[in-house]
């Protein structure tokens, strides 16, 4: 069937605008004004984005299956102790799905690319909150249960999701209507310093990750004596942390493609590995959370803070609302300019490379 369909052609780095460039990736680029149909068809041809899409799209179904298993097997509506796990699994479904959609449709236009990744960043911030909610409910060491830190942990995590989404969106173009607007979507400061946006994005996601893991880091590496929650689950937590730092390393360094530009354009470049190890890390994180939930349940139900709608589903809904508001504010100049038809990019076989580089 696919042999009867004409697949979109691919381009080299010199044939697409800089906004679509990836560090040390030379070929395999899709047309920068692809139609939605072309974007979907590109799933079935080898481009430098194909495995980026599939390495997150397929795991979405795995996490959805895990979510449905919890919903169908557990008494989730009457047992509030399962609500944190429910929030976490929903975030595990959302972030790879948002990522795969962003990578699929990001070549429809320059503006579409920015908006797609705004949603990607919002989904990642929700995942960070989902992690925090389960850590507060199941993972926090006995010593810290009911402490002042424990009481303010979720509210601070919600604030961190807002900061994460806002800073990540800011890293692409700056402040809407101040550093970019419907007349110009080029952020001049980043043209002069193309690594600045990447640094801001790393910072945007490192800060909530490090904060969310404070209870776990203390439990695994600093706590001594009674109340340290030293159990068999710690091995799974160690594995997840190692994979998390590996994914951060791959995202920041662009290895291995930086060592041999053009050799890993289609298979094996850092963003693909970042996706793969990130998903594996999320799997081990999920396994650790579920094991802590089961083994510590009697003690936590007796001594820990009560699990309520406010500190689980309510916090997640508030985070989603605030993140969507931020995404709307950053997208509004781009959407408004698109509806007015200003600065429309003409479809060309050999587009002129211009603009700033964003990843």
TrEMBL record:
Keyword annotations of the record: Membrane, Metal-binding, Transmembrane, Transmembrane helix, Zinc
Principal subcellular localization: membrane
Domain of life: Eukaryota
Transmembrane segments: 81-98, 118-140, 152-178, 199-218, 238-255, 313-336
Residues given in the record as Zn(2+) binding sites: 103, 271, 275
Pfam families: HlyIII
Keyword check for Zinc: yes
One CC-aspect GO term: membrane
Keyword presence, Metal-binding: yes
Compartments, record wording: Membrane
Membrane protein topology class: Multi-pass membrane protein
Family: Belongs to the ADIPOR family.
Protein name: Membrane progestin receptor gamma
Organism, scientific name: Oncorhynchus tshawytscha
